[in-house]
Amino acid sequence: MDLAFVQSGLLEKHLESEVISGAEVAALLKRRGVLDGTPVYLDEETQMPVPPVCEFGGYLSTALLDVTTLKDYGRVIGRLDDHLGGLDSDVLSATESDLVSYRNHRTQRQKKPVGGSVWSRESFVLDDFYGFLVDREILTHRPARLAARGRNALAPRVRSGMDIRHLTFEQYRYLRDVGLGGQLPNAQISPTFRGWSPLRDRAGADIALGSGTRWREWATALLPEMGLWPGMPGGAAEFTVQACAKYAEARPIYVPEDPVGSADLFCMLERPDIVRKAARGLERKARDLFVVGDIDVAGGRVRGILDGGVREFEMSAMDAKLRRITVFEGEFGLETLTLFVCRGGLIPGADAWKGYRHRAWTRMNALADETTPLLPARRWRWHDLRHTYALRLLTYLENMMDGEAPDLQARRRRHRSYLTGHIRHNPLLIVSRRLGHSSPETTYEYLQYTDDLINEFEAAFSGWIGDDESSYADIASHAISAAKGGR
Asked: What is the dihedral of CA 320, 32, 13, 349, to 10 degrees?
């Protein structure tokens, strides 16, 4: 089978047919609830849809998955079918041995085998796919049997824990200032640095660390959400994230004053030049953009023209795709409403941010000398900053509860006590809520790291982001206040 994905915007632009127009097809897809990114499977010879498998694509679309997830799930079925083609089989006639062969290919025999976490996701999609076919009576039974205790035979044999990777203070400052910021290890400016927007990249790192949010949450933040809008008082920012959050679960985000200041510096020194150069290009694409004319900061809503009609959205309900095309009339013309911007004038995508950190990692290693802190064994990830935030805040809150008695057994007793008797003020649960974990069990994974002496500091995050006496106590007190029901 050949794999394609629904892209309604391209249909409207390029579909030429005497039977139906591209706009009519796009309207039909919208009325049927078929989202962009929905996988479509085509017969290789006739290029006609393969109905049973395409039905699964429609089923995924009704689950309201985002575009990236829809495409990832669609590729899983496409990869399976490609492998089965070499076995003279296909996804509708596969046997258990065929699926086991595919599992072994993915996890052992291919040029770069996937790890347990990747295969875990793929086995989940395959199980969901064949369960769908059985529920629709397309197949009479699943190809793979259920093993002992209802376990899927294709599931990973070893359950891996969370890959918690965090940075020390020295590692973070070296990453931010040398890797992303273009400095030399001695804090001098490097005359050979060719980074295009170091203040933007530094601001991204500071916000990721200071807020503990996931990449999709901090990288898609809007200027009004960050308090960087005319008439707003400045300082720390607090807003609600939902559409860009994992599982679309709403929760408040708190960004301390220092990360906001880092973003403000980017807005003053680098952002104007970027948006000025990109304004003309955005003007040519205005019909495909959401041009905002009214921004209600207090109400957290925006109103403007989208697809030729007037639309109004709550900011927290704007997903990443909509945020990417949201612009307003600025000093130089159309300008993106998101904080971060790249050369094209819109928000940098996942590949762009990946490139920023890859180049930073190369630079960090190239400039390493005797003064360089011990670098991590593996290339850092943006998500490492979220893990660092969690460990810092958890350790800080625990130390506040402990006072001056760092007794290991007392710490163990305290964890059990707080989990049962002090739910609202338990450091673990406070951090769990701040991170947006669906279960405290996920946050519990961090406890094994809080007794690691390499991560103990008298004042968590002291001097990490700001250049003066910045402390993470502000974040901790804000988290405690929120747990008590205050602002």
From this structure: 20
Percent of the chain topping pLDDT 90 = 47
pLDDT value for 283 = 93
Q: What is the pLDDT of residue 455?
A: 41
Q: Which two tokens stand for residue 180?
A: 């992303």
HEC string of the chain? CEEEECCHHHHHHHCCCCCCCHHHHHHHHHHCCCCCCCEEEECCCCCCECHHHHHHHHHHHHCCCCHHHHHHHHHHHHHHHHHHHCCCCCCCCCCHHHHHHHHHHHHHHCCCCCCHHHHHHHHHHHHHHHHHHHHCCCCCCCCCCECHHHCECCCCCCCCCCCCCCCCHHHHHHHHHHHHCCECCCCCECCCCCCCCHHHHHHHHHHHHHHCCCHHHHCCCECCCCCCCCCCCCCCEEEEECCCCHHHCCEEEEECHHHHHHHHHHHHHCHHHHHHHHHHHHHHCHHHCEEEEEEECCCCEEEEEECCEEEEEEHHHCCHHHHHCEEEEECCEEEECECCCCCCCCCCCHHHHHHHHHHHHHHHHHCCCCCCCCCCCCCCCCHHHHHHHHHHHHHHHHHHHHCCCCCHHHHHHHHHHHHHHCHHHCHHHHHHHHHCCCCHHHHHHHHHHCCCHHHCCCCCCCCCCCCCCCCCHHHHHHHHHHHCCCC
Nearest to 236 by CA among 259, 266, 202: 259
Q: What is the pLDDT of residues 404-416, one digit of tens each?
A: 555 655 655 555 5
pTM (whole model) above 0.90: no
Please identify which residue in the block is written with the tokens 């979220």.
386
Q: How far apart are CA 141 and CA 133, in angstroms?
A: 8
What confidence category does residue 454 fall into, taking pLDDT thresholds of 50, 70 and 90?
very low
Q: How many Å is the maximal CA-CA distance in the chain?
A: 80
Bridge partner residues of 306 (DSSP): 309
